[in-house]
Amino acid sequence: MREILLCKCGELVLKGLNRRKFEDRLQKTLHWRLKKVGNFKIHGCQSTFYVEPLDESASMDEAMEVCRRVFGLVGVCRAVVCEKDIRDIKEKAGLYLKDLLGGVRTYKVETKRADKRFPLTSPQISREVGGYLSDVFPHLQPQMEEPQVTVRVEIREDYAFVHGGPIPGAGGLPTGTSGRGMLLLSGGIDSPVAGWMMAKRGLELGGVHFFSYPYTSNEAKQKVLDLADVLAKWCGKMTVTVVPFTHIQTEIRDKCREDYFTLIMRRFMMRLAEQVAIKQDCQCLITGESLAQVASQTIQAINATNAVCDMPVLRPVIGMDKEEIVSIARRIETMDISILPYEDCCTVFTPKHPQTKPTMEKVLEEESKLDVEALIAEALAGVERVTLG
User: Fold this and answer.
1) Above 80 in pLDDT, residue 90?
2) Mean pLDDT of the chain
3) Among 17, 295, 337, 349, which residue is least crowded by beta carbons within 10 Å?
4) How many of the other CB atoms lie within 10 Å of CB of 350?
């Protein structure tokens, strides 16, 4: 039997005159992602993209896994292709869904008749298919509310399709339709989740990581690259810029008050991230800050770090608690990497009693003890870039 994937579009169907731009970008993303798992034909019609294997080397299982991670799709259905004939639809429904229906006791049939030229109405098709399935699988009981399986029939322009329902897609908007953002990627739990959330809203991601060798290990850097590689499975190719940060941290430690160390360090991070973002044509920065989670994320501290940036700073997890963030991290499969026991630069020289309510006057006073421009230039001269995905 001939199989196909029906990829259901999400909120982009609500777009107006620019809807075509979103659809074109989504189709290009599907082409680029799927070419890694086989040869597929992709075309769109009526808010659905059809993904059809062109030869036996194309893996439908791998294609399903790829498509469920493509932003812009709310569901992916693996379906059998039928002729637009009720007998063919019934017979293929029984054969294609044999294993699925054999393991349940209740079911119902839902029909979507997009092609109104088909001679039977949607309720008539559902009755015909349901009656046939009840004869073939006598153990099945029709149940209209909360059945174990919903058999779905779709009558489209050229063919009919039968499937057992969609698996959830990633949702959101196609990657790149909202511009580019630079993610400050620390290696913790929060920043990958923040990047994923903004990629879901159509941002293409770049990453910047601050590396404090020898105070942090090469394993810590690899951990960040592994996180970026997982994110790339959702948001496409991603370049991580690794910025040497050791000299900046030792200068702050030696010349500034201990309780202002973390705050001044974060101001350097924001300056450096903005410079990297400008060079890579990004329009915003993205951080994993959650309000009041740690000392550097109080509203006063956030105000002080914001002051060094002209670029917008997006903080998608700012109002989420840790359990909510962890739940998303598990879903997107970054959690197990994030909790690996390798320290990042944010844990180096951590003050015992960090300042939680800094004043700008005191921040600037402490920062004046450093040659900010020279330290920034030195760090940017030593960056390393790694592309994942």
Assistant:
1) yes
2) 93
3) 17
4) 14
Which one-letter DSSP state was computed for residue 201? B
- pLDDT attached to residue 98: 95
Does 40 have pLDDT greater than 90?
yes
Q: How far apart are CA 80 and CA 378, in angstroms?
A: 59
The model's pLDDT over 128-183, given as tens digits with 9 standing for 90+, comes to 999 999 999 999 999 999 999 999 999 998 999 999 999 999 999 999 999 999 99
Those residues whose C-beta lies under 8 Å from the C-beta of residue 194, and which sit 6 or more positions away, are: 183, 286, 287, 288, 314, 315, 316, 317
Q: How many residues are given for the chain?
A: 389
- CATH class of this structure's domain 3-168: alpha beta
Using alpha carbons only, how large is the chain's radius of gyration in Å?
Answer: 26
Contact (CB, 8 A) for 317 and 286: no
The string of DSSP codes covering 264-301 is HHHHHHHHHHHHHHHHTT--EEE----TTSSGGGSHHH
Q: Tell me, what amino acid is at 190? A: D
- Tokens standing for residue 181: 């953002």
What is the pairing mode between strands 238-244 and 384-388?
Answer: antiparallel
H or E element, residue 52: strand 48-53
Q: Where are the domains of the chain?
A: 3-168, 180-388
CA dihedral 103, 109, 110, 114 (to 10 degrees): 110
Structure tokens at 298: 């109080």
pLDDT at 297 over 90: no
DSSP class of 210: E
Q: Does domain 180-388 have CATH number 3.40.50.150?
A: no
The DSSP secondary structure of 147-185, one letter per residue, reads -SEEEEEEE-SS-EEEES-PEE---SB-TTTT-EEEEE-
Please tell me the distance from the alpha carbon of residue 84 to that of residue 119, in angstroms, as a whole number.
10
Distance CA 188, CA 224 (A): 9
Fold agreement between 3-168 and 180-388 = no
pLDDT beyond 80 at 46: yes
pTM above 0.85, yes or no: yes
Give the burial string for 184-201 (b: 16+ CB within 10 Å, else e): bbbbbbbbbbbbbbbbbb
